[in-house]
Amino acid sequence: MEPEEIAAEVQAIADGESTDLAKRVERLNEFARNLWQIDWCGQFKDLLEGTGEFPVKIRASYVEDKEVGEVAMIPLEVIEDFAEHLRTYGF
Predict the structure, then answer these.
(1) Least buried of 17, 29, 51, 55, by fewest C-beta within 10 Å?
(2) Which domain covers residue 24, as residue numbers?
(3) Quick one: 48 and 21 in the same domain?
(4) Whether residue 56 is found in the same domain as residue 77
(5) Whether 31 and 50 share a structural domain
(6) Contact present, 68 and 82 (Cβ < 8 Å)
(7) Are 18 and 32 members of one domain?
């Protein structure tokens, strides 16, 4: 599939009539089955301090890289470093 075709399909899903984010994510995952998968949707704040399984997993991967032990939330003084970690997470 050509990049233009992928972009057009993703745009069609984004522009769809459904306002249900979970349904849009499901449609994107169906479309992109062999390209990529979306594991989570939420806000940056959720990643910083959320108690859900995915935010906790992300914070654990960050502190593991930094060898600082477990953290319940990301402190303000390392938010930029944490954001940089997110840019490369999963690659």
Answers:
(1) 17
(2) 1-38
(3) no
(4) yes
(5) no
(6) no
(7) yes
Residue-wise pLDDT tens digits, 46-79: 999 998 889 988 998 888 766 555 678 898 999 9
Contact present, 61 and 70 (Cβ < 8 Å): no
The pLDDT value given to residue 86: 92
User: Which two tokens mark 84?
Assistant: 């940089």
Q: End-to-end CA distance of the chain, in Å?
A: 22
How is residue 59 written in tokens?
A: 């914070």
pTM above 0.70, yes or no: no
Predicted local distance difference test score (pLDDT) of residue 85: 92
The gap from C-alpha 36 to its chain's centroid, in whole angstroms, comes to 12
Number of separate domains in the chain: 2
Give the whole-number percent of the chain exceeding pLDDT 70.
91
